[in-house]
Amino acid sequence: MIEARHLRVLRAVARTGSFSAAARELGCTQPAISQQMKALEKSVDTPLVVRSGRGMQLSEAGRVLLKHATGILAGLSAAEEEIAAIAGLRAGRVRLVSFPTASSTLVPPAVARLRDSHPGVRVSLVEAEPPESLAMLRGGECEIALAFRYPQSDDGAALPAPAHGTPREARAEANLEAQQLSAGSDWSDLVVTPLLDDPLVGLLPAAHRLAGRGRPVELAELAGEQWIAGCPQCRGHLVELCAGAGFEPRIDFATDDYPAVVGLVAAGLGVAVLPRLALESVRPDGVSTVPVRTAAGAPAVRQVVALTLPDLAEVPAVALMLERLAGSAGR
After folding, report:
1. Which residue has the higher pLDDT, 5 or 179?
2. What residues contact 54, with CB distance under 8 A and at least 6 apart?
3. Pairing relationship of beta strands 55-58 and 49-52 according to DSSP bridges
4. Helix H segments across the chain?
5. Do residues 89 and 317 make contact, with C-beta atoms less than 8 angstroms apart?
6. pLDDT digits 0-9 by tens, 205-220
7. What are the CA-CA distances from residue 38 to residues 41, 66, 236 (Å)?
8. Is 17 exposed, middle or buried (0-12, 13-18, 19+ CB in 10 A)?
């Protein structure tokens, strides 16, 4: 195998015309130069230098290798400079994948702060919900995934949306969806940076009988309502929360679009439960927001985190981005 240090010796010998002069140039001893040249000739299995009088010159094979060595060493030097820039946060990139509510609330101030302090680091963003975002992280499509998960049921599996009255195929599809969501909440192979506990907030039509009260609403008080649900993972958690409160919600509308949820509630078509982050980027006109408590009397929350792979967590730009995201969540 040809080593870069041997190529540097070859280049010095070609430039100076002798082992002793090459040794002075490289700051080592003449025997060390001789040994490295012998090792290089052994690796290519042919002589590389020819002695002529008191000096030496390269053989034909030596000239061919020197021609390639110049480009190889230049490339290595450029690589070393780029790596040093990345390590010193003068360059580099961080690819983020985030769910929409974090994209509009947590990500912008974090990226702005990073760019202010390290303008050479490029940050990009695409949106995806977990578990898709986790698959992208594990597949090398990003360095950091912002994700969330809800408390799990006693058996550790996320509950599917109700499938009563549906064909067997629909029930199977709902069960498969639940299994995928449960698998997506396994973070054991990842570095987890907790960002915040995002409380769930009840949305009621402005004229609702429970709107404007000064105390939290128990889920059981909404047992007879029509419901508007969000993403599949949020919908599954809603079903689980309602089951804990002793009822099965009647979900008439389901949408990933939070402004659409607010619009449907404002029109009096049902009630909903949304994460507080979702309301930071939506104008809740025509609705009343109320704190929501579970059957156990505790606030309903989801855990929002930033995830990365263990090796990526050691990359300076990734570590700094995680720090900025944590700061943004603390606000």
Report:
1. 5
2. 18
3. antiparallel
4. 4-16, 19-26, 30-44, 60-87, 100-105, 107-117, 132-138, 168-184, 232-244, 258-266, 276-280, 316-330
5. yes
6. 999 999 987 788 999 9
7. 5, 16, 69
8. middle
